[in-house]
Design brief:
Blueprint lengths: L1 H15 L9 H7 L5 E5 L6 H9 L4 E5 L3 H4 L6 H10 L4 E5 L7 H10 L4 E5 L7 H6 L4 E5 L5 H8 L9 H17 L3 H6 L3 H20 L4 H13 L3 E3 L1 H8 L4 H13 L3 E6 L4 H6 L2 E5 L2 H6 L8 H19 L4 E7 L5 E8 L2 E8 L6 H18 L4 E5 L4 E5 L2 E7 H5 L2
Parallel strand pairs: 1-4, 1-5, 2-3, 3-4, 7-9, 11-12, 12-14
Antiparallel strand pairs: 6-8, 7-8, 9-10, 10-11, 13-14
Length: 419
C-alpha cells in the first residue's frame, strides 16, 4: 500500500502541473471549497471528475488517494491509508478521495474523517453517491456537484474560439461548423482534447455497462441489460414506457425493466424527464422521455447524424438544462408537456410553484407547417400552465414573433448554449 500512495503522489504532481479547461461548475464548488462541508463530485465515467478536482485544488496543499486500486479496496481498516498519506503529504488542507464508491461502506469512513476535521473532496461515477448513503450518513454535511461531458462553451474553449456578443458572417459560419462537430462527436474530454474517435466511445459505453452496472449490481442477464441500454440510447429524445420496453425486448417482467433502467440512470449514461402534470399520479404513470448523456456516444452507436439532427439538438438542450441546474443554486424542475391530442412542448422549466419557461426545439423552422405546429403547441401549453416566457431554439434563426396573442422569442442553438 505504501508504494501505491507514493506512486499516486507522483501522478498527482504530474497532473497538477498541467493546463486545465475551466468547467462551468467551477464557481459553485469554489463557493464551498473552504467551508466545513463535504464536496461530492459525481458524473458519468470519464467526464473529467478527477481532472476537475485537480484544477479546483491547484495551488493548495492537498493529499490524494485514488481507490481504483484493488489493494486499497480490499482493506479491512481504511484508516491504514491515513498513515501513508501523512507520511508522504504531512498535514494537508484538503483530502481528495477519488472514486470513493469502490469502497464498501465508504460513507461511514468519510463521515468519520469529516468528524475528525478533514476538509474532503470526493468523486464517484454512480448516482448512488447522491442517494441512500448520503441521505443516511451525510445529511446536512455535503454539497453535490454534478459534472457532465464538456459543454459547448467548454468545447469552444478547447478549440480556441473566443465567444462574444456579435460575430462577422465568417465567424458565424465557423461557429456553426463547431456546433455541428460538437453535436457529432460530443463532449467527452478525451474526444475533444485528444481527438479520440468513435471507437473510444463504443469502448467507453461497454465499460459503463460492464463495470458500473453488471459488476456493481451483480446483473445476471448481461445480454438483456446490454440490449436495453442500446435501445434506450437509440430512443433518445423519445418517449418510452416500461411496459413497452418489456414487450419489445422480451423481458420477463416490468419490474426487471424498471430496475435495469434505474441502474443505467445511476451511471448517468441516460436520464429521463417526466411528463408535466399537476397530479403526481399522472406524472408517475405517464411515459418518460429519454435522453443520452452525450450525443457523440449516440452517434458512435451507428445512428445517422443527418437523419436525427432535430432530435440531437433536443438532446443537446436537455443535457445543457441539467448542466445549468447543477451549476445553479436555484431549485429547478424539468419536464416535458403533452396533451391528449399529442401536441407537445419539449421542455417545461418549473421554479418553485410556478412554470417559469417553456422551450421548444425546432431545426426546420423554415418549413411553414412545422413552424405552425410547434408554435401552436407552445401557445396551448402556455395557456394551460400560465406561462409567458416562451422560447424556440433554432439552428440559426433569431428574432421575435407574436403568435395567437403570445410573444415568442427565437434563439439559435449556438447562442443559447453560450449562455
Amino acid at each position: 500500500m505504501r508504494q501505491i500512495i507514493k506512486r499516486q503522489k507522483q501522478e498527482k504532481e504530474q497532473v497538477a502541473g498541467s493546463d486545465f479547461v475551466r468547467r462551468d461548475v467551477t464557481g459553485k464548488i469554489d463557493t464551498y471549497l473552504r467551508q466545513d462541508i463535504i464536496k461530492v463530485v459525481t458524473g458519468v465515467r470519464r467526464c473529467g471528475k478527477s481532472i476537475f478536482c485537480f484544477m479546483v485544488l491547484k495551488g493548495t496543499d492537498f493529499g490524494y488517494v485514488n481507490f481504483d486500486e484493488k489493494e486499497l479496496v480490499g482493506l479491512e481498516n481504511y484508516d491504514e491509508i491515513l498513515r501513508y498519506v501523512q507520511e508522504f503529504y504531512g498535514d494537508v488542507d484538503y483530502l481528495f478521495l477519488d472514486k470513493v464508491q469502490n469502497l464498501e461502506n465508504w460513507e461511514l469512513w468519510v463521515n468519520s474523517l469529516h468528524r475528525r476535521g478533514y476538509n474532503l473532496l470526493i468523486t464517484g461515477s454512480n448516482a448512488k453517491l447522491l442517494s441512500r448513503e448520503l441521505a443516511t450518513h451525510l445529511t446536512g454535511r455535503h454539497i453535490a456537484i454534478g459534472l457532465f461531458p464538456f459543454s459547448f462553451r467548454e468545447y469552444l474553449d478547447v478549440a480556441g474560439f473566443y465567444t462574444r456578443a456579435e460575430y462577422t458572417e465568417q465567424e458565424r459560419g465557423t461557429l456553426l461548423n463547431h456546433l455541428k462537430k460538437y453535436i457529432e462527436v460530443g463532449g467527452f474530454p478525451e474526444v475533444v482534447v485528444k481527438g479520440y474517435d468513435y471507437t473510444y466511445l463504443q469502448t467507453l459505453f461497454d465499460s459503463i455497462i460492464l463495470k458500473d452496472v453488471v459488476q456493481r449490481y451483480k446483473v445476471r442477464y448481461v445480454d438483456d441489460l446490454y440490449n436495453l441500454a442500446r435501445f434506450l440510447m437509440s430512443s433518445f429524445s423519445n418517449e418510452v414506457s416500461y411496459t413497452k420496453l418489456k414487450n419489445t425486448l422480451k423481458f420477463r417482467s416490468v419490474h426487471t425493466v424498471q430496475n435495469y433502467v434505474r441502474y443505467l440512470e445511476d451511471t448517468y449514461l441516460v436520464f429521463h424527464l417526466d411528463r408535466f402534470s399537476f397530479k403526481q399520479r399522472e406524472q408517475i404513470k405517464s411515459p418518460k422521455k429519454m435522453y443520452a448523456v452525450d450525443t457523440g456516444m449516440v452517434n458512435a452507436l451507428a445512428f445517422t447524424f443527418s437523419e436525427n439532427i432535430g432530435k440531437l439538438m433536443e438532446n443537446t438542450v436537455a443535457v445543457e438544462l441539467l448542466r445549468q441546474r447543477s451549476a445553479s443554486s436555484s431549485r429547478l424542475e424539468l419536464y416535458y408537456w403533452k396533451d391528449p391530442q399529442q401536441r407537445e412542448v419539449d421542455f417545461v422549466i418549473k421554479e418553485g410553484a410556478d412554470v417559469a419557461r417553456l422551450i421548444q426545439v425546432c431545426h426546420d423552422i423554415d418549413n411553414p407547417k412545422t413552424k405552425a405546429r410547434e408554435l401552436k403547441s407552445l401557445v396551448l401549453a402556455a395557456g394551460e400552465l400560465d406561462c409567458r416566457d416562451l422560447l424556440v431554439i433554432t439552428w440559426d434563426w433569431e428574432g421575435e414573433e407574436e403568435f395567437k396573442g403570445c410573444d415568442i422569442r427565437f434563439v439559435p442553438l449556438w447562442r443559447w448554449l453560450q449562455g
